[in-house]
Amino acid sequence: MSQYKIIFTGPVGAGKTTAIEAISDIPPIKTDASASDMTKSKKSSTTVAMDYGIMNLAGGEKIHLYGTPGQERFDFMWDILITGGIGLILLLDNTRADPFQDMKFFLDSFQKFIAETNVAIGVTQMDLSNKPTINDYHIQLQGMGIKPPVFSVDARVKNDVSLLVQSLLYSLDPGIEA
Amino acid sequence: MKDKLKSPLKIALHGIDGRTYKMMVMYLQGPCKGAAVVVEDLNAEVDMIDADSVQAQKLLEQKLTKSARPIIVLSLQELTFENILYVKKPVKTDDLLFALSEAGTMLSAKKKPSNQVSSYTENTVTRQSQESIDQIESRLPPEKNQVKKQTTNTNEQKKTSKHQTAMQLDEGKFNAYIGSVPGLDVNDPKQFPDAVYNPKDYFQGYVQSALMVASAKKQVMHLNSGWKPLIIFPHNHEIWLDADDKQLRAFASVAMNKISGPGITLTPAEPSVAPIKEDLEKFHDKDAFVWKLAVWTSKGRYPNALDIQRPVFLRHWPNFTRLVITPHALRISALLMASPRTLPEIAEVLNIKPQYVFVFISAAYALGLIGQTKREATEIIQPSVIKKSEQQGLLSRIIGKLRANKS
Questions:
Q1: What is the pTM of this model?
Q2: Tens digit of pLDDT for each residue in B152-180?
Q3: Which domain holds residue A93?
Q4: Of the four, A59, B149, B188, B299, which is 20 to 30 A from B80 by CA?
Q5: For B165, which of A69, A74, A157 is closest by C-beta distance?
């Protein structure tokens, strides 16, 4: 059976783990690698910074939800993650010093993947910091030549995350009927 | 490169969170083939700093003034500093190995037995440290020099209506929630010319006019309609209304000239009115308020300013998580983001009732998100055929799953 993935990315604290938890049918898994996998001199396990969840579909299909490491920004990891990905969910933290810079970084880094699939952007923490506004994000994106969905998102709220993912999927094909 | 790094460099990591720290440990051991190991600060030969962390500037200043160790900086920005090795993010293995090699060379130079060399190196590092700090302060973007100031106080979180998640309506709930116009079948193509409404005839039009005035004057305004008090806060894009959604829905559908049309006034208001302070849950986001007001005014009709024969386009996606989502609104948005279409075409292509198109267009138009192509250009614009995804069945099942679990 094919492996289908939806990739969640964004800076640390943007809510990737929480968002995956909101729609996953299993508690998110943080993959632990045993010491022997990494180094014989170390005994304790080490968390590989990647979040993982699953959506179980009727008929036994599974959608794998992967969260990229946040501030790590090691592209070797991203390349592995995005292979076979359906699309990208980019979460941005509105309380960070320069969320536009974050947005540009992640859109540039995943440019090829986005061109092949699509992206939907969720802006979190807007109840703490209401600027920039969603409209400000659209203005920035206009300058970058793309028009993805951009929603205010509370990553703890399943409906918010669900709508963001739905917008990604409809962007891929507006003809989808649920 | 390996020859220069016979024994692993000992690196201390700074400004890097716990998860990234572990990731870097593995990265150095794996893709970097053990060129360096992460150690405690006291035992380190080289410092590695994340220049995009909040405390980056402070860390750099500390290391440049108090330590003569080589510094590797990971940064999104292009940086060129004396005595600081720069690796651009996303970190690439070759770039990091090169920086480690350079750091090793710097260490080797410092370890030479000659006092002269050692003294020279340390003096150079010390002298250039202040230069580097100055450079850092001037070259790092201003945003990096300070933590973002919060623009709102804790009251923002108490504005529950404003941050409430969207209500997603399905077809079954539409008529009960949105309503319909007696004697008009908006889904009958023959009645399309009559399926229009003028927002100016309703509360919607007065609210939109008041918003424009408040925005232009940058003044808190009170709309006196003879109904419930409505106050506009243009600076925060907020509306305060002393009524619940049920009351608003009922009032939205009543033609204003039948109530108090000429008596409606707009006056400057004091932002610190006592009831407002106590009723923070009555604050609404301006766009979300206008959107739902238009939905309830439309009742499945479209604004009379639009020509149903001309294609419309959507300027950008609405912020759906904070809006009332009418049936098929996401599909209509996705379709219009791909290319302009006439309203009947949208219904035809998506195989949905025209009322769902009309109500969405009414709401999006009220927010200024809908534009209409000029008549001359109509012939040039050929709506693209929807590209059917090879994974349509799969995508449909995912959406079905997501919509089934909305709680």
A1: 0.73
A2: 455 666 676 666 766 777 777 777 778 78
A3: 4-30+46-172
A4: B149
A5: A157
